[in-house]
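[job 0417] fold request received: Zinc ribbon domain-containing protein YjdM
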Amino acid sequence: MGELPNCPQCGSEYTYEDGDLYICPECSHEWGKHAAGEESEQKRVVRDAYGNVLQDGDAVTVIKDLKVKGSSLVVKVGTKVKNIRIVEGDHDIDCKIDGIGAMQLKSEFVKKA
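[job 0417] inference complete; emitting structure tokens
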């Protein structure tokens, strides 16, 4: 039996084959055998609230007041954030906001500046 690839989503080594698919029992991610080598080359496309593609280093503007969890601070509408980084996860923008510090934002609450 050949060596099976680790899950590209969670990194689990307990993947198994089912027809033309690899399946991860831990996170239920399924991917095709033909995509196993291409998975690392594919880059996730992150779009802002208006459908513009965001990339590392872009500047964005916040379009909604956002409460900062665990504090009384609020990121106000119109706050400009420079030099963003695209990361994996629900909050897909990693950035630093003046006066608040490092935080993560959801792309649905920003527009490309």
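[job 0417] notes: The mean pLDDT is 88. The two ends are 52 Å apart (CA to CA).
[job 0417] exit 0
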